[in-house]
Specification:
Elements lengths: L12 H4 L3 E2 L4 E2 L2 E4 L7 H6 L5 E8 L5 E9 L5 H8 L3 E3 L1 E3 L2 E3 L1 E8 L4
Parallel strand pairs: 1-9
Antiparallel strand pairs: 2-7, 3-6, 4-5, 4-9, 7-8
């Protein structure tokens, strides 16, 4: 068995622009402003079950959502309304060794249609 020393990754400027996955020493971003999606009336009436979706976000070191990728959605037609709302969310950025970093962050999203 070969032992490998674990050395902390320095939070240099060059690393802050490369998205890192949340976990370990990377502290998750914290949502501070959420925009709810707005569905047109014809879409609200067509919904038969509560929409539930999983997304992968890239949250930059200033807390802005720069990318949204749909991982799974039980109603694909609603994704077109949810993604623009998520792009407006604001986060306190993820950190590595106390310094802000750009992070890959997975979220689940459910939407109650009234």
């Amino acid at each position: 068995m070969k032992l490998v020393a674990r050395v902390p990754i320095p939070a240099s400027e060059s690393l802050q622009d490369v998205p890192v996955r949340v976990g370990g020493e990377v502290v998750a971003p914290v949502l501070i402003h959420k925009v709810e999606p707005t569905l047109p009336d014809h879409e609200k009436h067509a919904v038969r079950k509560q929409p539930f979706m999983f997304f992968e976000l890239v949250v930059d070191k200033s807390g802005d959502v720069t990318s949204v990728r749909t991982l799974k959605a039980n109603d694909e037609t609603l994704v077109q309304y949810v993604v623009p709302a998520i792009r407006q969310w604001k986060f306190r950025p993820a950190t590595l060794h106390g310094k802000p970093v750009t992070a890959l962050y997975n979220i689940s999203f459910s939407y109650e249609v009234r």
